[in-house]
Amino acid sequence: MNAITAESRVTLHFELSLEDGQIVDSNFSQSPASFVYGDGSLLPTFEAVLLGMKVGDEASFVMSPEKAFGAHNQSNIQRMPRSQFAMDLEEGMVVSFADVSKNELPGVIAEIGDKEVVVDFNHPLAGRSLTFRVNIVAIEAAI
Fold first, then answer.
1. H/E element holding 62?
2. Which DSSP symbol is given to 32?
């Protein structure tokens, strides 16, 4: 297989970094990761930029918030009664909540007051532009 298509299994090194160059995630110093195109391992917009790349190709793509983890949405910030939390809380702590369908929903404790707690349910990288750097190690036909 010469180039990445929608029917590929891709092995690659990748790095995600913020606008200031801070690395969020990288496997360049580890074993490469593999995924089958369309399996949900990568966001669809991240997969799309890989189409047509070949083994040995290395590239960087700046992904706007809309192409990465979405814009920061003010309606995803909730105020909850402090009494609802039986544990010790710290700002920045991630707490797991259950939504109406009993799905797990992580929230970040943004602010702790005497009577209420502010919880941010936005993805931690929402509203951020990210640089997605890749090096293609192998391409195979997905079975």
1. strand 58-63
2. P
Q: Could you tell me the pTM of the whole model?
A: 0.80
Task: Please measure the distance between the N-terminal and C-terminal CA atoms of the chain and give it in whole angstroms.
Answer: 13
Tokens for 74, please give them: 């003010």
For 106-116, what is each residue's pLDDT tens digit? 999 999 999 99
| Residue 87 structure tokens | 């544990």
| Type of residue numbered 26 | S
User: Which residues, other chains included, contact 33 with Cβ-Cβ below 8 Å and sequence gap of 6+?
Assistant: 11, 12, 13, 14, 27, 41
Give φ, ψ of 134 to 5 degrees.
-135, 155
Does residue 40 sit in helix, strand or coil? coil
CA distances from 115 to 38, 49, 62, 85 (A): 45, 47, 41, 11
Q: Regarding predicted confidence, which is higher, 1 or 37?
A: 37
